[in-house]
Amino acid sequence: MPELPEAETIIRGLQPLTGQRLGTVEVLYPDVVEEGPALRQGAEGSQIVQVHRRGKNVILDLVQGDGARPSLVVNLGMSGRLLLRPLGDPSPPPTHPGLRASVARLDGTPVGELVYHDPRRFGRIRLLSARAFQAWSETLGPEPLSAHFRSVDLEAGLKRSRSPIRSWLLDQRRIAGVGNIYANEALFLAGIHPETPAAEIPSERVPGLHRALKRVLRDAVAAQGTTLRDYRTAQGWEGSYGTALRVYGRENQPCPQCRTPVVRRVFGNRSAFLCPRCQPEPEVP
Ligand SMILES: [Zn+2]
To answer: With 90 as the cut, is the pLDDT of residue 284 above it?
Structure first.
């Protein structure tokens, strides 16, 4: 499932879209597109003024002919890909295109197409007005790679919750962009058991968790994300962080620090991976 590093990699690959114009928009999977007819009408002919990211969502800021500035918000779900296909791209066309938009220069010269591909169809594409975008963005937590995300704020948030720390990290209202892979990896680096109640993480351990989150996310962005199955960059390439994973998906394999076999635990409907020695169970009070 694409998380922050995968979304960041995709938006970097989509930067050539900036300043270009969307032409014909085709909705092929109406179930992944919210209000398809209105979205088509709003997007067609708009200029893309910025491609950016909020949490794990890819955002295309548009400006319409009348000056309105809506945003196309793409949540990649489990298996969504956003592919930028230049004109005459020799690679085979995507097998599960959910939305396709032609892209042209401002003078009308066609340059290619933007394709949203999603075999499992858990993704979602919405066109939000500037005001609706602002309201939605405010429901999300801070961006963990921004300077505004400070250890003291993380500590204040943790103190208010009894949720297991892994679940807390996955809650997009707490921090935007962290999913199961990077939550598990950061908790391993910080030496914290994933089931530790958030409020019970001692203050002196919080800076370590804060550092671990930033490090794991930054390294994964540098590796262009993690491809386990479906994720690809905007150019169709695989991310290479998979080989750097320390515990995620490594059940029964040796911990990179102490060689104890990695353990998988299921809670909150998701697998957690941990080293039972480096990440001791929280003490029952
Ligand atoms: Zn270990």
So the answer is: no
285 band by pLDDT with thresholds 50, 70 and 90: low
Please give the Cα distance from 65 to 106 (Å, whole number).
12
Q: Does the annotation count 119 as an active-site position?
A: no
Q: Which residue among 197, 270, 276, 282 is the active-site one?
A: 270
192 alpha carbon to ligand 1 midpoint, in Å?
Answer: 11
56 catalytic per annotation: yes
C-alpha of residue 275 to centroid of ligand 1, in Å? 5
The verdict on whether 174 is a catalytic residue reads no
Scan for tokens 């938009």, then name that residue: 101
Q: Retrieve residue 224's tokens.
A: 């262009």
Q: Read off the pTM.
A: 0.95
* Nearest of 139, 24, 152 to residue 73 by alpha carbon: 139
Catalytic residue (choose from 3, 6, 8, 185): 3
Q: How are beta strands 71-75 and 124-128 bridged, if at all?
A: antiparallel
Q: Which residues contact 220 (CB under 8 A, 6 or more apart)?
A: 4, 5, 182, 226, 239, 241, 244
Longest dimension (CA), the chain: 68
| Chain segment 120-179, per-residue pLDDT in tens | 999 999 999 999 999 999 999 999 999 999 999 999 999 999 999 999 999 999 999 999
Residue 247 near residue 232, CB atoms below 8 Å: no
> Per-residue pLDDT tens for 92-129?
889 999 999 999 999 999 999 999 999 999 999 999 99
CB contact set of 136 (below 8 Å; sequence gap of 6+): 73, 128
* C-alpha–C-alpha distance, residues 59 and 143, integer Å: 14
The encoded tokens of residue 242 equal 């998979």
